[in-house]
């Protein structure tokens, strides 16, 4: 199975590196010609994954047509660009593995729903979990969920990607795997705010727990399974991303917590903080299914610049007491 990777940001590059540990022919599409050149000539992705020496089995191209000979495609552009990129690739009936974490603005669609529209004949899998790209590319031990409704295809894709240090766990719950990854990015912004505002470790733990309750309420309303939400792609990724400034979403939140404006923090960024795009569309999607997500609403308000951090924290803490259950 010849693997093609579409998107040469940090995560696409790390996944190409994973595929290339056993495979002598991995092709990655980079939107930026200078990134293709850097991978092909210097064996490094200086723009998006600096400091990692890349396998000589990875070839880069900036021509999407070059992916025509690939047997399976990993889609690793940011979520808001999945549809436009798929429109340019004649995917046909080749399996696609969706790796972006987000919800499409405007349509409120999950990535699998976008892909089903844009590449209707392609079998779909989702790859999502606690996976900082730098650690994966450096070969550090990592576990991840690979969800595919077709169990036999899921198994063959997992076998194709698995390495001793990279363990896919199989699931058939595509929606559940996607919801965990999309929601945790917004919650990571909230945890960053707690850090930036100096609110302490108790507050961070409370936010992870109550954030998980929000993720679960929304996930269950959308048909996700409990064990997926409590697994690698849900709780696992929530804990990782809420714990470290290695997360772009957590760092964005930290800046907000320190009182900086979202517009300033987001201006001129080359790397993506998906939670900033997901937050408003997630809040709308939650309202569609009648689910309360107060932490997500708070992140939206902060990103819009509608409210100051102190006022927001006071409002969250003043909410009526309630039962802990969902
Ligand atoms: N970096 C990480 O550790 C992980 C990232 N992800 C997810 O992978 C997805 C991609 O993130 P990263 O690789 O980190 O990106 P990145 O932040 O490293 O790079 C940004 C990417 O956006 C691409 N881009 C910019 N404008 C574009 C356009 N108009 N059309 C298509 N692509 C465009 C750039 O070419 C580049 O590949 C995101 O959804 C992210 O949440 C998932 C797991 C881990
Ligand atoms: O998804 C990730 C880790 O699983 C990466 O998180 P950030 O996008 O916040 O850096």
Automatic annotation (TrEMBL):
<keyword id="KW-0594">Phospholipid biosynthesis</keyword>
<dbReference type="GO" id="GO:0008654">
    <property type="term" value="P:phospholipid biosynthetic process"/>
</dbReference>
<feature type="binding site">
    <location>
        <position position="249"/>
    </location>
    <ligand>
        <name>sn-glycerol 3-phosphate</name>
    </ligand>
</feature>
<feature type="binding site">
    <location>
        <position position="133"/>
    </location>
    <ligand>
        <name>NADPH</name>
    </ligand>
</feature>
<feature type="binding site">
    <location>
        <position position="129"/>
    </location>
    <ligand>
        <name>sn-glycerol 3-phosphate</name>
    </ligand>
</feature>
<feature type="active site" description="Proton acceptor">
    <location>
        <position position="184"/>
    </location>
</feature>
<feature type="domain" description="Glycerol-3-phosphate dehydrogenase NAD-dependent N-terminal">
    <location>
        <begin position="2"/>
        <end position="152"/>
    </location>
</feature>
<dbReference type="Pfam" id="PF07479">
    <property type="entry name" value="NAD_Gly3P_dh_C"/>
</dbReference>
<dbReference type="GO" id="GO:0141152">
    <property type="term" value="F:glycerol-3-phosphate dehydrogenase (NAD+) activity"/>
</dbReference>
<keyword id="KW-0444">Lipid biosynthesis</keyword>
<feature type="binding site">
    <location>
        <position position="248"/>
    </location>
    <ligand>
        <name>NAD(+)</name>
    </ligand>
</feature>
<feature type="binding site">
    <location>
        <position position="247"/>
    </location>
    <ligand>
        <name>sn-glycerol 3-phosphate</name>
    </ligand>
</feature>
<dbReference type="GO" id="GO:0005975">
    <property type="term" value="P:carbohydrate metabolic process"/>
</dbReference>
<dbReference type="GO" id="GO:0005829">
    <property type="term" value="C:cytosol"/>
</dbReference>
<dbReference type="GO" id="GO:0006650">
    <property type="term" value="P:glycerophospholipid metabolic process"/>
</dbReference>
<keyword id="KW-0560">Oxidoreductase</keyword>
<dbReference type="InterPro" id="IPR006109">
    <property type="entry name" value="G3P_DH_NAD-dep_C"/>
</dbReference>
<dbReference type="InterPro" id="IPR013328">
    <property type="entry name" value="6PGD_dom2"/>
</dbReference>
<feature type="binding site">
    <location>
        <begin position="7"/>
        <end position="12"/>
    </location>
    <ligand>
        <name>NAD(+)</name>
    </ligand>
</feature>
<dbReference type="InterPro" id="IPR011128">
    <property type="entry name" value="G3P_DH_NAD-dep_N"/>
</dbReference>
<comment type="pathway">
    <text>Membrane lipid metabolism; glycerophospholipid metabolism.</text>
</comment>
<keyword id="KW-0521">NADP</keyword>
<dbReference type="InterPro" id="IPR036291">
    <property type="entry name" value="NAD(P)-bd_dom_sf"/>
</dbReference>
<dbReference type="InterPro" id="IPR006168">
    <property type="entry name" value="G3P_DH_NAD-dep"/>
</dbReference>
<feature type="binding site">
    <location>
        <position position="31"/>
    </location>
    <ligand>
        <name>NADPH</name>
    </ligand>
</feature>
<dbReference type="Pfam" id="PF01210">
    <property type="entry name" value="NAD_Gly3P_dh_N"/>
</dbReference>
<protein>
    <recommendedName>
        <fullName>Glycerol-3-phosphate dehydrogenase [NAD(P)+]</fullName>
        <ecNumber>1.1.1.94</ecNumber>
    </recommendedName>
</protein>
<feature type="binding site">
    <location>
        <position position="133"/>
    </location>
    <ligand>
        <name>NAD(+)</name>
    </ligand>
</feature>
<feature type="binding site">
    <location>
        <position position="274"/>
    </location>
    <ligand>
        <name>NADPH</name>
    </ligand>
</feature>
<dbReference type="GO" id="GO:0046168">
    <property type="term" value="P:glycerol-3-phosphate catabolic process"/>
</dbReference>
<comment type="function">
    <text>Catalyzes the reduction of the glycolytic intermediate dihydroxyacetone phosphate (DHAP) to sn-glycerol 3-phosphate (G3P), the key precursor for phospholipid synthesis.</text>
</comment>
<feature type="domain" description="Glycerol-3-phosphate dehydrogenase NAD-dependent C-terminal">
    <location>
        <begin position="173"/>
        <end position="313"/>
    </location>
</feature>
<keyword id="KW-0547">Nucleotide-binding</keyword>
<keyword id="KW-0443">Lipid metabolism</keyword>
<dbReference type="GO" id="GO:0046167">
    <property type="term" value="P:glycerol-3-phosphate biosynthetic process"/>
</dbReference>
<feature type="binding site">
    <location>
        <position position="248"/>
    </location>
    <ligand>
        <name>NADPH</name>
    </ligand>
</feature>
<dbReference type="InterPro" id="IPR008927">
    <property type="entry name" value="6-PGluconate_DH-like_C_sf"/>
</dbReference>
<feature type="binding site">
    <location>
        <position position="11"/>
    </location>
    <ligand>
        <name>NADPH</name>
    </ligand>
</feature>
<feature type="binding site">
    <location>
        <position position="272"/>
    </location>
    <ligand>
        <name>NADPH</name>
    </ligand>
</feature>
<keyword id="KW-1208">Phospholipid metabolism</keyword>
<feature type="binding site">
    <location>
        <begin position="248"/>
        <end position="249"/>
    </location>
    <ligand>
        <name>substrate</name>
    </ligand>
</feature>
<comment type="similarity">
    <text>Belongs to the NAD-dependent glycerol-3-phosphate dehydrogenase family.</text>
</comment>
